[in-house]
Amino acid sequence: MNKKIPSIVTHKWAISRRVALRGIGVSIALPLLDAMAPAFSRAAQAVGPSASDAPPRRLAAFFLPNGMNMENWRPAQSGEQWEVPPTLEPLRPFKDQLTLLQGLALDNARAKGDGPGDHARSCAAFFTGAHPHKTAGHDIRLGISVDQLAAQRIGAETRLPSLELGMDKGGMAGECDSGYSCAYVSNISWRTPTTPIPHEVNPAAVFARLFGSDDEGETADTHARRLHERKSILDFVSDDTRALSRRLGRDDQEKLDEFTSAVREIEQRIERAMARKQINPPADAHRPTGAPDDFAEHMQMLTDMLVLAFRMDLTRISTFMVGADGGDRTYRSLGLSEGHHTLSHHGNNPQKLEGVAKIDLFHAEQLAYFLKKLHETREGDGTLLDNSMVLYGCGIGDGNRHNHDELPILLAGRGGGSISPGRQLRYHRGTPLCNLHLSLLERMGVKTQRFGDSTGPLKNLKV
């Protein structure tokens, strides 16, 4: 029997922000509904007039490997008159939501006497601001990453303190870059200076994590039963869904219908991807992972689930590793026969630079897909994109030079009104990237004097 839907009832019916649709082994948190507004207002009144009933702020951070074709990244103009550069053309529809940041640097990705290994240091330092201890053994040492500092401070407010996603599984042991451990190359989130957090690449596993109950055994049984009976996860919460819908207003009923349709659409895409991998497998084949072979399809499935996680307030913090720095993925669908890392060492060869530009543009298309989903999701008086901060960039500027200054860094979203986008901002060359991290922490409600090598929060993000 399904559990009774919790509610907060006064003279006017309202529901808690934490209400969920529940079934055996299944729990589906709800998006922000109009019926939740009275609950927000009562909570604000209970703690005083300074409390806000505004939707929560979210932070999503995307790491890209190997640098970029910087000539195609830089606009000619600054301020509000900047023109969208070629690499960011797919993001033109969201120009008024973009803040392009120039002049930022990642000092602790520099060698500092450790010799080669720029790719490992770039990846390791991007979200930590720390210089990795050079080792290929077990004595790895770095620093806590900005996402995990936020998760430690505010993660208890959501079911998942943070969500780590990525496109490729990486190794945790052995040497991957000039004497640096694979742990530095394969991870961008670090819970402690010695504990990296692996990211999840399998959309099916992410789906199960978002929608399973807290009882792991029960969730596994339900998952097996659902696959055997070819049921949707929504079938397990159908009683709760109908009971809730009857008590909602028309606008909220439409929101609930649209939300459950989005859940089912993702579920069907995962099932189709798994089915493709299960067609006549050889006897020695590995167990299907559920991750599509097509890069765009794979990344879009993962970002769709990130949108749902933000929408349901399951988490407010996420990192996404688009690729391991130094990785040589071949983008054959773009007509390229050489790998990304190989092309990034272009030596000013026009053909290789063109190849890097194609990959940069392709990655920007995937970001545009994610931003569009956020923009299309209404929340409160705005959209999910209005209430989010999406960081996108590399720890290397030009892949041929391996420089760690003048980094390609983009920020999307309004951060719940705390950012004034639609501008290109130029900072003094060498300004620490950690100044941006410090600014994002402040906007997430995390008060700290310093992070990494920060010298203070970035100025002018809000006008």
What does this 3D model show about the protein?
- The chain is α/β, with parallel strands linked by helices.
- It folds into two domains: 113 residues, no CATH class; 297 residues, 3-Layer(aba) Sandwich (Alkaline Phosphatase, subunit A), CATH 3.40.720.
- The chain is built from twelve helices and 17 strands.
- Helix 9 packs parallel to helix 11.
- The radius of gyration is 22 Å and the shape is globular.
- It starts with 7 loop residues before the first strand and ends in a 20-residue tail after the last helix.
Features:
two-stranded antiparallel ribbon, about 35% helix, single chain, 12 helices, Alkaline Phosphatase, subunit A, disordered N terminus, globular, about 475 residues, alpha/beta, 17 strands, 2 domains, seven-stranded mixed beta sheet
Counting structural domains, the number is: 2
- For the record, what CATH class of the largest domain applies? Alpha Beta
* SSE succession: EEEEHEEHHEEEHEEHHHHHEHHEEEEEH
As a percent range, the share of helical residues equals: 25-40%
What is the count of DSSP helices, taking H or I runs of 4+ residues?
Answer: 12
> How many DSSP E strands?
17
- CATH fold-level topology of the largest domain: Alkaline Phosphatase, subunit A
* Span of the ends, CA to CA: 53 Å
